[in-house]
Design goal:
The complex is a heterodimer of chains A (about 350) and B (about 450).
Chain A lengths: L1 H26 L7 H20 L2 H8 L3 H32 L4 H24 L11 H5 L15 H7 L5 H19 L1 H11 L1 H6 L4 H27 L11 H11 L4 H20 L12 H4 L4 H19 L19
Helix pairs in contact in A: 1-7, 1-8, 1-11, 1-12, 1-13, 2-4, 2-5, 2-11, 2-12, 4-5, 4-11, 8-9, 9-11, 12-13, 12-15, 13-15
Chain B lengths: L1 H10 L1 H30 L5 H13 L3 E4 L5 E3 L3 H26 L7 H18 L7 H30 L3 H22 L29 H4 L8 H18 L1 H11 L1 H6 L4 H24 L16 H12 L4 H24 L5 H15 L1 H28 L3 H14 L8 H4 L8 H7 L1
Antiparallel strand pairs in B: 1-2
Helix pairs in contact in B: 1-16, 2-3, 2-15, 2-16, 3-14, 4-9, 4-12, 4-13, 4-14, 5-6, 5-7, 5-12, 5-13, 6-7, 6-12, 9-10, 9-14, 10-12, 13-14, 13-15, 14-15, 16-17
Classes of the chains: A mainly alpha (about 350), B mainly alpha (about 450).
Chain lengths: ~350, ~450
């Protein structure tokens, strides 16, 4: 059970935070199809940052001295770097779709094509292979929160709560959850959030009330880019051992689906992300999931092909969308370039 | 007189579309060169010489003939490269057509990779599964090709169906069907007996179709371009492109599809079955992508890596830039498809001859797509220049051209408000049109 919860969270958290990234863009009126590309770019920047900073004397010494605080700080700095560059990368989309009033779907697709190409081009030149890894060690030994940090011995039990939510987790997970809550509150309970949402519903009315629609849309896509970039790094850190490969296995698109399934509302999105995280987790590690702890791997014993499990998240998404799309209500003005001269 | 004719040519919308695409290409190539330059300058391992070689290969890779005895790059007509370029252009033209046809109906077919994979599966299984002892190889080839198209059509129809009847965004549905296809194809080949067990190093691949004696006829092209993989597929692809042009511009079906793309609601009021048109358009798109896969893998000298569940074929995605660069014109797709595969060849040469790698060509392609997103703006700039020169006579001519095609009208409508603030050239008639840039049905819902 502990394993199942931890694995589900690992998949659900990037989905959740990237889906929220989509919400911020779409609520301001910009379709951000580029989530996947920004994730790829963010993952690359984060891993590159870790790779470079790891080699400095300070962090080498910190690692040798088991200075957990410094290492967690490095993880957070890398998240920040990924978020910052994700935001910068997303400016390409903002500029095209806000200032130049370009087709947002095509602009997003361009970024999705650009990110893996650019990232792989640079990785090949930096690392002389198709993956960029940490300079030394692995993600688990550098960044994972372990019992030892809280003074527990190797054999001591932390209890269900401790072993599920503290031992062998990443602080990134909790930062993402915290950010998710804070940003959801900002979106719904502050003046800024209200203005942002109004730009996605009726920009003309918003403009007539003195809100700068262009600025709000820039804010929306930039926050979106930052979150997606960070989500990309969190994905790389937690699921692929802090490795950048120019690929996030369609997670950005899955996040878009989560966003639509969650009806553009944060709470529903959190639920949807957990559901998809569960299916993703089942497809990735169904053979080692022991639900009731009796040593029997039920899902592996069902005799269902591994390929079906791998297909499941996408199949379920499509089916779920089929049932929910009738009620889904997208922001009214999303995808329509705003033009002051038009009524 | 001659000058007048040139002005008329320049004022034609088609000319400006071509010019906008050419400008996109030039900027894309420039961006690629600049990136090579920056990387070359900032990396201590790379000399200025290899940077300069890299830039030359980015621009003229198709003409590269390797290195001479002294070690410097040589350029000239390289029949192998040109032949391979035509061979690789074949599936690109087909997926480009796929995206273009869907786009004309107002649908963004990002599902081409999935349709391509399903087409691959169907045509390979048919080509390898039907025994050539009893059925002539030519017939098997035809069955496999048509089978690939049919399978692609079915796969493409799924996002069309859910879009038309369940109102699921076709982009999302396509992405999901892409990954389902990737897993399905891996599954199907995993349990099949088409995995190459004869050559021990090729176990991750499916047999070549020549294993069963099936291959695309060469039509003498291999004589023209010795040493390359080229075959008759490119001719078939060009014929299909011309066919699509005729269907889209000269038939009722094409008119209905385009009407749905311009304004779905208006089309419905005019008695066109909009839902059926959407499904039809996606099915045609799927058939084209599937056919492209069939042409590529039935050539007999290509191998399919069957364990593809973690990746989608680039050829499918590259259909998007091919179509966008051609402004969704089926004839234009032929040229942009060949151009894309030319970049591809340049990337191969770049990897082989310099420390740089082929991904720079993907960067160039991405830049071009990015620019084509606002090709309207580029066209507008061209318009602006024209207006200073040719003044009003041209403006009236242009407004006449606007009404001829729904797509053009929509594009123009997107740009008109831009000019409204200065008020001089704004045409009130066009101003009232909805700002539907490529996503007309969305604009409709908003009202």
């Amino acid at each position: 059970m502990t394993f199942l919860i931890q694995q589900t969270l690992i998949y659900a958290i990037p989905l959740m935070i990237v889906a929220l990234a989509g919400v911020f863009a779409e609520r301001s009126g910009i379709i951000n199809l580029a989530l996947e590309g920004i994730m790829i770019f963010g993952a690359f920047i984060g891993v590159l940052f870790v790779n470079i900073v790891q080699q400095t004397d300070f962090f080498m010494a910190a690692k040798d001295a088991d200075n957990y605080l410094a290492l967690q700080g490095l993880e957070m700095l890398a998240m920040l770097a990924a978020a910052f560059m994700g935001a910068v990368f997303s400016l390409l989309l903002s500029f095209a779709s806000i200032n130049l009033r370009a087709d947002q779907t095509i602009g997003g697709t361009a970024l999705n094509l650009m990110a893996p190409a650019l990232v792989l081009f640079l990785i090949r030149i930096i690392a002389n292979q198709n993956t960029l890894q940490m300079a030394s060690g692995d993600a688990a030994s550098w960044f994972m929160i372990k019992k030892a940090m809280f003074g527990y011995g190797r054999t001591e039990d932390m209890g269900f709560f401790g072993s599920t939510f503290i031992d062998k987790t990443y602080i990134a997970t909790y930062i993402c959850i915290l950010l998710f809550i804070i940003l959801s509150i900002i979106l719904y309970k502050t003046r800024f959030g209200l203005r942002l949402r109004s730009c996605g519903e009726n920009p003309q009315a918003a403009d007539s009330l003195g809100i700068n629609v262009y600025k709000m849309r820039y804010a929306g896509t930039t926050i979106s880019g930052a979150l997606a970039g960070m989500g990309g790094f969190v994905y790389a850190l937690t699921t692929s051992n802090c490795m950048a490969t120019g690929d996030v296995a369609g997670f950005g698109f899955l996040a878009l689906a989560v966003m639509i399934f969650g009806n553009w509302k944060p709470l529903n999105i959190a639920g949807a992300a957990l559901l998809f995280g569960l299916f993703k987790c089942i497809s990735a590690s169904y053979s080692s999931i022991d639900i009731n702890g009796d040593g029997v791997y039920m899902l592996a014993n069902l005799g269902i092909s591994v390929h079906l499990y791998r297909m499941l998240p996408y199949l379920i998404t499509l089916i779920v969308l089929a049932f929910t799309s009738k009620n889904s209500r997208a922001p009214k003005a999303e995808g329509i370039p705003y033009d002051k001269g038009k009524r | 007189m001659k000058r007048n004719r040139l002005v008329t040519l320049y004022n034609m919308d088609a000319t400006r579309t071509v010019l906008a695409s050419l400008i996109s290409i030039l900027i894309g190539l420039a961006v690629g060169s600049v990136i090579v330059l920056i990387v070359g300058m900032s990396s201590s391992n790379l000399s200025a010489k290899s940077t300069w070689e890299g830039i030359r290969l980015v621009l003229f890779g198709i003409l590269s003939t390797g290195r001479d005895a002294a070690g410097s790059l040589t350029f000239g007509f390289n029949p192998t490269s040109v032949g391979n370029m035509l061979f690789r252009a074949t599936p690109l033209i087909m997926t480009g057509l796929s995206v273009a046809v869907a786009y004309k109906t107002g649908l963004f077919n990002i599902g081409a990779p999935g349709q391509y994979l399903i087409g691959t599966m169907a045509s390979l299984m048919l080509a390898l599964g039907i025994p050539t002892e009893t059925v002539p190889a030519g017939i098997v080839w035809l069955i496999a090709f048509l089978g690939g198209m049919a399978a692609g059509a079915i796969w493409g129809a799924i996002p069309g169906l859910v879009k038309a009847y369940l109102n699921i965004n076709e982009v999302l549905a396509s992405i999901m069907t892409n990954w389902i296809a990737a897993n399905l194809v891996t599954w199907a080949f995993d349990v099949s007996n088409f995995k190459n067990v004869v050559e021990s190093t090729k176990s991750a691949y499916v047999y070549k179709t020549t294993f069963n004696g099936v291959e695309t006829p060469k039509f003498g092209l291999d004589q023209l371009f010795p040493g390359s993989q080229v075959n008759g597929g490119i001719i078939i692809a060009i014929v299909i492109a011309i066919l699509m042009y005729v269907i889209m511009t000269k038939t009722t079906l094409g008119y209905q599809l385009k009407a749905c793309g311009s304004n779905r609601h208006a089309a419905r009021y005019a008695g066109i079955k909009d839902k059926q048109s959407i499904v039809m358009s996606m099915a045609i798109a799927g058939a084209l992508a599937g056919g492209g896969a069939a042409l590529y893998y039935l050539s007999g000298n290509t191998e399919f890596y069957w364990s593809t569940y973690q990746s989608l074929p680039d050829t499918g995605f590259n259909g998007i830039p091919v179509a966008l660069l051609a402004a969704n014109n089926p004839i234009g797709v032929i040229f942009t498809g060949i151009f894309m595969s030319m970049l591809d060849i340049a990337g191969v040469q770049l990897t082989a001859l310099t420390p740089f790698n082929e991904y720079i060509t993907d960067v160039i392609i991405a830049t071009i797509v990015y620019l084509s997103a606002f090709s309207l703006v580029i066209k507008m700039l061209l318009n602006g220049r024209k207006k200073h020169k040719a003044a009003k006579a041209a403006a009236t001519e242009e407004s006449g051209a606007e009404t001829t095609s729904g797509e053009v009208a929509a594009e123009e409508a997107g740009k008109i408000p831009d000019e409204a603030p200065d008020g001089t050239d704004a045409q009130p008639a066009a101003e009232g049109k909805p700002p539907e840039d490529g996503a007309p049905e969305k604009g409709g819902e908003a009202k």
